[in-house]
Design goal:
mainly alpha; two-stranded antiparallel ribbon; disordered N terminus
Length: about 575
């Protein structure tokens, strides 16, 4: 078998696999050299087409690296918050605070600290860029995973306890499969959130010093600042190509894999096999590697069984009487030390922040409160307008297998495209129709945050068990009643998550939408986001601290009052227990 597989004719799938592997290796080598290059704060961005592929690859690696960090953080922190009442009381408010801090809030201390840590190479500025993209991705994924774990049907938890699954087995066999669909869709949306701030992360200013990294975000920022229309079009095409390639290589296979975890007993959606699935299936090289791996695993398992001298049954009957997993003394002390260290850091940061805020005048506080009210109205308008058309569209697409197959790739590409790259086109339309920039800033915010609502509604609609649809069909339920009694209640828990993440995204988007550069001129409107951008660019840390404090306070108050009640309603009245 081995000789037949080695000497068989090389298939096109093998050629594609080898080309992909070689391309990734070459790109990693080039990107690694960029990390080890001599530190240079503001490189000269080359707007020629020759440099654009390299810039696109660099941005792709930064986005993927940030996503890997986000996924690890999500699985650990989301699970911890959902399973421990004490941790939930600390972690959820902390996540609320961190989610409400915009990317520019992390930027000054992060950049200065990492550059001081790596003064001679680009490692510090590259790490800062990856971490800033991470802050634009991780919160949506974490809240989605946490919400899914809290919404696991009671029947599943009871069966897990009856058959004696320990916490790890329950996570792998029950909780992760149940949350897979929401986690995958929100992961795709989080990648879009990371692309949204790509221009800010790769090209920014701190005082008089400018920082630029080779990437498509810096390329677009430079093209917009210089008014180079051809470079803008080239950047949009390159970003679209990157999104489509990642959609084919990563997201379509992952979404097809997640379809197997749908919550239903009757066959419903049958996802078509993606292109990468066909390539993997047809590749003789990958089949040979898989066969060698399985043979090695089987050999090791046989050796372990032969060397094992423990008599008795494989199944330990004591597992049925265990009350649960408890950490050992070492893990307990490690957790206590970690919490103590974080508490000391938080205490020191709070003292420094309080000292800075005491120096802010009362007149400035009143101006900041008025600016906060203006931005708050824009955020509310974004949620209302986004829900009016995204909720019906999401349910309409998600309840039809044919519509999902047709619309899913289009929605993925549109949602993944960073909205700030479309801002020049949107501004040109605003100027043509003479729309005031204060009103236009709200529509600029809507371009990015509406996808949070659509993706969550779409994921919720695709999780509606097909048995309920068949039951409604047999009873001849009118369409209006079907929407009121089945569709809207079923997607409501996912919609609440979409609202919360969209609201947080809107507050962050206000920084870019209320203050932006266009053809060498700065367009600005009054609001908290524009004040944060001005404070960061002029290195006014006192104003920046005051703005961030107000934004964090407003978001936390809303989350602890309005969103907490709606979350509780979605987890009690609209919980789906089969």
């Amino acid at each position: 078998m081995q000789k037949v597989l080695i000497h068989r004719k090389v298939s096109p799938a093998d050629a594609v696999v080898v080309a992909l592997v070689l391309t990734i290796i070459y790109a990693l080598i080039v990107y690694g050299r960029e990390w080890q290059a001599a530190f240079h704060a503001a490189i000269d961005i080359d707007l020629s087409l020759y440099s654009l592929p390299y810039y696109t690859l660099f941005s792709a690696f930064r986005g993927v690296a940030a996503f890997c960090l986000s996924l690890v953080f999500t699985l650990i922190v989301g699970y911890w918050a959902a399973k421990s009442v004490k941790a939930e009381r600390i972690l959820v408010p902390m996540l609320d605070i961190l989610q409400s801090i915009p990317v520019l809030g992390f930027l000054p201390p992060l950049v200065l600290a990492l550059i001081a840590l790596f003064p001679r190479t680009n490692t510090g500025i590259e790490l800062a860029c990856v971490i800033m993209i991470f802050t634009g991705q991780v919160w949506n994924m974490t809240f989605s995973f946490y919400s899914s774990l809290k919404s696991v049907p009671t029947d599943f938890s009871e069966v897990s306890s009856v058959i004696g699954l320990n916490p790890v087995e329950k996570l792998m066999k029950v909780e992760l499969p149940f949350s897979a669909m929401n986690l995958v869709w929100n992961s795709l949306l989080s990648m879009s959130g990371g692309w949204f701030f790509l221009s800010v992360c790769e090209s920014f200013s701190l005082g008089d010093q400018k920082f630029r990294l080779p990437g498509i975000g810096a390329y677009m920022a430079t093209a917009v600042d210089r008014g180079n229309v051809s470079a803008m079009i080239a950047g949009i095409i390159a970003m679209s190509a990157l999104i489509i390639v990642m959609d084919i290589l990563i997201w379509r296979p992952v979404l097809a894999w997640a379809h197997q975890f749908r919550l239903e007993e009757t066959p419903g959606f049958t996802a078509t096999e993606p292109l990468m699935g066909n390539i993997v299936r047809e590749s003789g090289l990958l089949r040979w590697l898989n066969a060698m791996y399985r043979r090695r695993v089987l050999h090791q398992s046989i050796l372990r069984e032969q060397s094992s001298q423990k008599p008795g049954p494989r199944l330990d009957p004591r597992r049925f009487t265990r009350s649960g997993w408890t950490p050992g003394p070492f893990l307990t002390w490690v957790g206590r030390l970690l919490v103590a260290g974080l508490s000391l850091v938080a205490l020191y940061g709070t003292m420094r922040l309080a000292y800075t805020l005491f120096q802010v005048s009362g007149k400035l506080w009143s101006q900041l409160l008025f600016a906060t009210m203006i931005t708050f109205l824009r955020v509310v308008a974004c949620l209302i307008l986004g829900s009016i058309w995204m909720v019906p569209v999401g349910i309409w697409i998600g309840t039809s297998q044919h519509r999902v197959r047709v619309a899913q790739p289009i929605v993925q590409v549109l949602a993944s495209f960073p909205a700030p790259m479309l801002y020049p086109l949107a501004i040109a339309v605003m100027f043509a129709f003479r729309i005031p920039f204060g009103l236009g800033a709200m529509f600029l915010m809507l371009l990015g945050v509406q996808w949070y609502i659509l993706f969550n509604v779409l994921a919720g609609a695709m999780r509606i068990p097909v048995e309920l649809k068949y039951a409604a069909l047999l009873m001849n339920v009118p369409k209006v009643e079907l929407w009121k009694t089945l569709y809207l209640p079923s997607v409501f828990p996912a919609l609440v998550t979409g609202w919360v993440t969209a609201a947080g995204g809107a507050w962050n988007a206000s920084i870019v939408a209320e203050y932006l550069s266009y053809k060498g001129t700065v367009l600005t409107t009054y609001g908290l986001g524009s004040l944060i951008s001005v404070a960061a660019s002029t290195e006014n840390f006192q104003l920046l601290a005051a703005c961030l404090t107000i934004m964090v306070a407003v978001v936390i108050v809303l989350n602890r009052t309005v969103w907490a009640k709606i979350y509780y309603l979605s987890q009690t009245r609209f919980r789906m227990d089969l």
